[in-house]
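Many introductory courses stop at the sequence. We go one step further.
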Amino acid sequence: MKLTYIVNQITQLGGIERVISMLSNSFVEKYGYDVRIVSLNTKESDEGGFEFNSKIVIQHCGYSPEEYINRRFLNMRIREFLKDEERRGTNVIVASHGNIADLIALNKKLFSGKIVFTEHSSWEYYTKARKLAQILFYRKANKLVVLTEATAEIYRKYGLKNVTVIPNAVREVPKFKKEGHKAHELIAIGR
C-alpha cells in the first residue's frame, strides 16, 4: 500500500502535524505501508517537532509564501503532484488542508487512486464562501474525515455521503506539577 500525505508545513508543532506523525509511523511500523509526506512550504533544512520513522520519505517543496498564495502557481504544482503520484502507483492521497483539497478535487481526473480529505477546524470558523467551497469540493473525495459527529452531521445535511468520523488521536495530556501555582490560575496553550 502506497500512501501520500500532502500538507502545508509538516515541521509545525500543531495538531495536524502530530496526528500525521502518529498515523504515518503506525502505518509503516504496524502495516508495512510505503508512506510519503509532501510538505509544500518547508525546506530540507527546516527542523520539525515530531519524529518520523526513517522509512517515511518527506519531500520538502520549499514554496515561498508568495508562491503558496498564488492560486495559479499552486494549481500547476498540484497537477504535477497528482501526475507524479499516479506514475508512482500511489493508492491513497490524504490532504489535510482545505486549499489543497480544493485543487486536488478540481484535478481529480489526473489520479486514479483514492482521495481522502481531512477537516480539522470547526464549521463555525469558516466564512459562507469557504463553507460553500467545502461542500462542493469535499463531495469529490472518496472519504471526508472529520473529528466529531456534530461536524459530520453538518456535512451530511448538505448531502455529503462520504463523511466519516475519526476522533482526535491525541489522547494523552501531559501532567503538570501544581507547585508554585495558585489554586485559581488557569493556563491555556494553543496555536
